[in-house]
Amino acid sequence: MSVSVLMTGASGTVGTALIRHWLHSGDLDRGELKVTAVTHEGGRTESGRVLPRHDGIRVVRGEITKPDLGLDPQALAELVGSTTHVCHLAASTRFGAPLEEIRRVNVGGTRHVFELAERCPRLQHVALASTVFVSGRRTGRVYENDLAHGAGFVNTYERSKYEAESLAHEFTGRVPVSVYRISTILGDSRSGSVQHYTAPHQALRIMSLGLASMLPGTPDYRVNLVPTELVAAAIARLILRPPSEIRTFHLAAPDEKCFTLEEMIETGYRQFDRLIPGWSRRRYPKPAIVSGETFDRFMESVEETGNPLLGGVMGALRHFAHQLLYPKEFDLTNTAVSIPGYEERVPDVRGYFGRVLETCVRTRWGSGVEGE
Amino acid sequence: MSRTPSHGSAGIPISTYRLADRRLSLDELHRGGLLTSAPEMLRDFGFEWCHVHDQPNATELMLDAARALLHQAPVEREDLAGLFVYSGLPSAGPTSASDPISLFRYDLGRIRHELELDEVPVYRLSELGCCGLAATFNLAESVLRDSDRTCSIVLTGDCFGPDARREIMYNVMSDAASAILVHRSSDRNRFLASHEIVQSYYWDSPAHSDEILASYFPLAQRVIERALAKADTPMDRLRWIVPHNVSVRSWEILCGVLGFDPDRVWLSNIAKVGHTVSSDHVINLCDMQAEGAIEPGDRLLLFTFGFGASWSASVFEH
Predict the structure, then answer these.
(1) Partners of residue B199 in chain A, C-beta under 8 Å
(2) CATH superfamily of A3-190+224-256+328-347
(3) pLDDT in tens, B144-153
(4) B256 touches A: beta carbon within 8 Å
(5) Which class for B108: exposed (0-12), middle (13-18), buried (19 or more C-beta within 10 A)?
(6) How far is A330 from chain B (nearest CA, A)?
(7) pTM (2 decimals)?
(8) Which comes out higher in pLDDT, residue A49 or A313?
(9) At A40, is the pLDDT very low, low, confident or very high (cuts 50, 70, 90)?
(10) What SS3 state is found at B262?
(11) How many Cα atoms within 13 Å fall on the side-chain side of residue B151?
(12) A310 to B257: CB separation less than 8 angstroms, yes or no
């Protein structure tokens, strides 16, 4: 059976990892799989690299915020005629973006993708990439089949993805949608490479600079991190399966393979000591772990003083750090049923954290080109 | 970096202070170009008044404070193990050697002369920023412990100069001096324990100001918790934190970090007095005693941060 995947967000962390996975697995080489990457960046990844050249990969310029993804009529007709699977990965991850702005991309864009999918006569499956943090300010065990809650959200990104998932429910019966709720991606567990420097990387950067004064949360908060290749392999497997009653999957790590917040900070400090010459002599203190109110008061003060450096680096924490106040555990039942052995295959973060930090330090958190 | 007394009864029976006379409001300082931040922000941070000395150094203020102390506690000179003097600011003496002998015009000699303390050993400490009082007290207490004398005098004083700018890291700085009698067997303010954390990497304060700001709270938490542990004093056993007079805002945040009730931090002098380099604790202790805020047996924690850089906490029992 020939599979033709329309992929948005192919240049992002998950998109490039998924394409790499298909290249390595031979699926693309065997000609059983073709990918049409709809990207507004001309097929460039976030680190500036171009998507791999391969007969099975076609890059089409498009924009999810526009109806029909802004495709020209010929490309649109070809895509509608050929697409069997849609993998919608594109999203704005600007946590601090105004709601309307991020909603336009993450909800409006999803609607456009679903509407296009609806018109594809060969369509078998639509995969929507989401986040485990659609659970927002909920605490405790979060089940994959749960969505609706009134706990509120830490940032506009979480809310917009929650709304995108709600939209997927609206399309039930019109398109066969599965939702993949992805946890925070740290990097490739084998090479330590990092495609996109996100919340945990930024927090660690601030610690390495001796500028981390405090973090909200509790010391035993479980920081759920997953490696890039695990997410790619899981999506590759799930998307090609015919959709069943199970529609939502947590691509997260089991709790025992996660750091506590305190452990992550301590491990980070030990790694900086190893990786940055002279770092230990600076004797930077570990950040205090404080209540949300204290953290907010501190942030207000930093903002009020207009201190440019502290304001800049601590401001980077502001839009995600509050999630540390809402401890939760992500149930993995659906994923484990669909991917036998999933939990065993998730690498323990303790085993690859050092490799990822090595990349962070070597590339100065992405300011230099990795590998140079 | 800790001090725990072997006998546990040395303390501070008497203390005095002297504030510079000229009092300027935030608006007056602002009009005089002596602030970096807007007065509204500094007011929001808890400041209102600043005391400015009309002399380039704190010697007169220290002498006044010492005379008041000796008036209240007429100690015999032969009972004194030492005179301990601290200033966190460089002396404003001559910097040119055009008349080299003027370089030897020592304020310390003047203090000994005017207080008639020629026979008393003298010790001078410097460059410990706002941690000077704690370090000088610890030295005085240590010397006293190995001496057959009964008490020592500690003088602190800092003066920025009449035309100096008055803001450091969002704090309003005043000129003042303090004097304390350290007695080997004190009936009040008995020293229980102290802890100090030194971060010499931050010796160049301007170059490391952002790191210092970021480190302030986690190291304050650590030094306070360790001092309390050494004093076998749980946080809820503390009656008061006697602060150094940095911004009220920073104390609100530090209380949040510590889980300590901000109503039990003596904050009222921050607006009235501002932050003096090394005399805040004595000023606050004196005023707390004068206002009847402290009862015998109350445990007090004195915390401060000093450029250089060090974090210091001491526990006393009133």
Answers:
(1) 283
(2) NAD(P)-binding Rossmann-like Domain (3.40.50.720)
(3) 999 999 999 9
(4) yes
(5) middle
(6) 29
(7) 0.92
(8) A313
(9) confident
(10) helix
(11) 22
(12) no
